[in-house]
Predict the structure of Translation initiation factor IF-2.
Amino acid sequence: MPIRIYALAKELDIDSKELVEICNRAGVTGKGSALASLTDDELDKVKSYISGGGKKQERKSKATGESKEAAIKQPIRDERPAPTGRPKEIRTIRTGNAPLAVHGRSSRPAEPDVEELPAEEPTAEETTAQAPVAEAPTSEAPTSDTPTSDTPVEEAPVAEKPAKPVADEPAEQPVAAEAPKEAKKSADQDASDSDFTPMRRGDYIAPGGPGRNKVRVLGGGRSSDQGDAGKRDSNKPKTTAPTTRVKFAAMPTPATPPTSQAKKSGEPAPQKPIMQLPKEAIQGAKAGQKAPLEEFTKQHEKKRKDKERRPVEIGSTDSDDSGGTGDRRRTKSKGLAGMAGGREARAAGRRTKRPGEMDSDLGNRMRRRPRSRTTRKGVNTAAPRKSAVELELPCSIRDFSEATGVATVKILRTLMTLGTMANINTMIDTETGEYLAAEHGVEINLKDALSIEDEVITKIEEIEDDPDTLQERPPVVTFLGHVDHGKTSLMDKIIDKNVVSGEAGGITQHIRAYIVDKDDKQIAFVDTPGHEAFTAMRARGANVTDIAVLIIAADDGIMPQTEEAISHAQAAEVPIIVALNKIDLPGANPDKVMQQLSQHGLLPTEWGGDVEVVKTSAISGEGIDSLLETILLTAELHEYTANPDRPAVGVCLESEQESDRGVLAKVIVKNGTLRVGDIVVCGSSHGRVKAMYDTLNPRKRLTEATTSTPVSIAGLDQAPGAGDKFYVLDDIAQAREIATLRADRSRSESLGTHTVKVSFDEFQKRREEGTLGNNEAAATLNIIVRADTRGSIEALQKEMEKLDHPEVKVRTLQASVGAVSVADVTLADASDAVIIAFNVIPDEAARSLADDNGIEIRRYNIIYKATEELKALLEGRLKPEERINELGRALVQRVFVVSRLGSIAGCRVLGGTIERGCRIRVNRDGRTIGDYPLESLKREKDDAKEVREGYECGMKLQGFNDIKDGDILEAYKVEEIARTLD
Ligand SMILES: Nc1nc2c(ncn2[C@@H]2O[C@H](COP(=O)(O)OP(=O)(O)OP(=O)(O)O)[C@@H](O)[C@H]2O)c(=O)[nH]1
């Protein structure tokens, strides 16, 4: 009678599970649980096993504390009894040659009892042989063609058996793939019935996956992982025979990435940071450099401090725009850690970032840098080149550049190629402007400049007087002629004043103008210098002239300057009256002179012509009245008229500056009436007429000057030039503006050009070296002229223009009236110029500065001496030089007038010494008024050989008694020194 295992276990007083195992070991297989029943045979077999020692051994193992594992390690095969009874059920059936595999064992959820494998497993041949047995229908066994992969082990106790024959089969999946659908459905149905999840295709349990911990090893501890190995080792004897369930530790679950780090859709794959030291760092490390970051930090701090002290330069590599690039580059150059340098550079970039500035990358900063460099180089401010422009010439180079768009640099360069050194303020005339335009491809349309000068002055000149307002006016007569033909003497005879002896060198150097009365009529005389140096002044005199009186010495005849005077008179289209002077001389030959006159187109009336020839003698006065009558008659014939009621216009004959009266301009009114208080503009000077003086009596004040009247006016701001026209304006501002405009123009013209400079000494040095003329541009001797009058200046300039030397030229940098000033010395020092002082002396400050800087001040009182000296110097034909040896200066403190001796000057020697026999220059108000020999020198009452500085003395000058208190007497001696020029 069958007995259940749990009942037997109770009977035997052992654990039911233990009894199940015993049954298995006793060869009673198929008893998976305590509910299984044992037949009588099986009961006997189990009991015999237990009684035979099996039980004892089991119990002994327990008593000795052997673990179940030890028992499992025990070879089962040896203890297992030989198989008996009918063969075990085989549920796995091969279909054809298809390999079979056991599926589902690992997925069986709770295999209740895993019994030990049969001790002797059938071979493949045996399995095959037993296949028909397997076909025996059982209630639970599937059909023969049903795959057994999902068959529960409980229903197939010998499920392991069929696995053996297919152990060597390569794969299990092909079996499943080839399984008929009907079988699969059946298997699914079975699995559903047995609460098992059927294994399906595609169900893949990764190693270590969730199902791994559920793997149970059946018999021999073979897991699914070990299945193949077990299959491969199927021919080997089993070394293990587990009889109990083996529990494996759960496989570690791989950590799931945090949700925050989950890759977002569309986001690029994260890149691994490149942790690579730069080459500099590696090199530094190899070189034994320690702690590059620390070293870099130190240098960075140093740089930061330097940068804070140093202003940021636009466009520089250290600038903000360059950001950290420059720092990084510098860091690299010093071999510091590149990574630290990059960090520092980025930090620098953040520091230098300005509000609103784009946070551009390095490339952008690099691209911006060239633009900043371009800005630093400057922008061409010249206007765009214009195709056709209207231009007023003359204009400055700056104006030309702005109008045409041609850069001033190019213009200056072009002028330089022409040998002209200019600057932007240099005025260019029409010819130069046209050349520049053609040279630079600019089309210019010249237009007349319209300035306030035109608006005001032209308007005045265009005024036509009403014939009813015109009245007869005195004729203006000019004496022209050759040197020493008696012009001055003749005029003196007319005005009964002897001025010839007062002229230095006996040559007329100033324009004199007087108005004389004759037979209730007036005649205005303008005496121009006879020397050729005064040609320009003479020419200007002719311009204001109504009648020209040509003075010809009867004993000398027509001379070159006489011919020139004739030309000027004829060019002025004025009537000419010839005065055959010095008729009293024995050598006078009137016929010869008249013949010469005829040859020059001046046919005397005596010979049927229209030229009045009057025989005169300035000495005897012969023919003077006849000359005056002839002048008045000629004036009547020509009906000289003017409008005395209009604002005056006229010409400046000459000007000078006096200490007490300021600028005195000698002018002659050509039309209208000049009055005190009138606003006058004359050349580049202007002012209101403060006072007017008679030319014959310089201290006699006048209130007005009618037409043709020469007069000296005071009130102008500066000395106008001889020949400058004057106009009376209504507005002083207009006068000032016009004068300023003219002054600027004159200044730019005089200073606009500049060439190689050379002083006297430098010139001589170059001649000695033979270097003169080697330059393309001729060497230029710059001079600064200071003179007592404008006439002297123009005479000097005119003479110097004639000093045309192939190797050197003379250029006047500045010419003005007055004493030599500090400004003159400064200009001479800056331009290596020589100062020509004509009839003036330098003031104390200028003298001291000139001595300190070695500026040469050459003083002259005779024009031709100055010009001849310059000429001799230029031509290298210098004669023994009359060198002036300055001795000393004395101040006149008191003048003693002795009736039989004349004026005695009581003086104190201010400097140097006063020596007997020297010459004395008399200076008054900054001007040299005379040069006389020292007649006597006394210390108290005794004659003295010399008087030194600080002592008082008395001096008597030969031929000069008009000495006054405050005069400065300069003592000098003339020494002849041979020139070493050649
Ligand atoms: N015998 C004689 N001598 C005269 C006569 N007129 C002038 N002289 C002399 O000639 C010399 C020159 O006279 P100036 O009056 O200075 O001659 P100038 O033309 O004025 O000379 P510049 O000043 O150079 O223009 C003087 O010594 C005069 O005395 C004259 O009619 N008869």
Summary: The radius of gyration is 68 Å. The domain at 776-876 is CATH 3.40.50.10050 (Rossmann fold). Residues 680 and 736 are 9 Å apart (CA to CA).
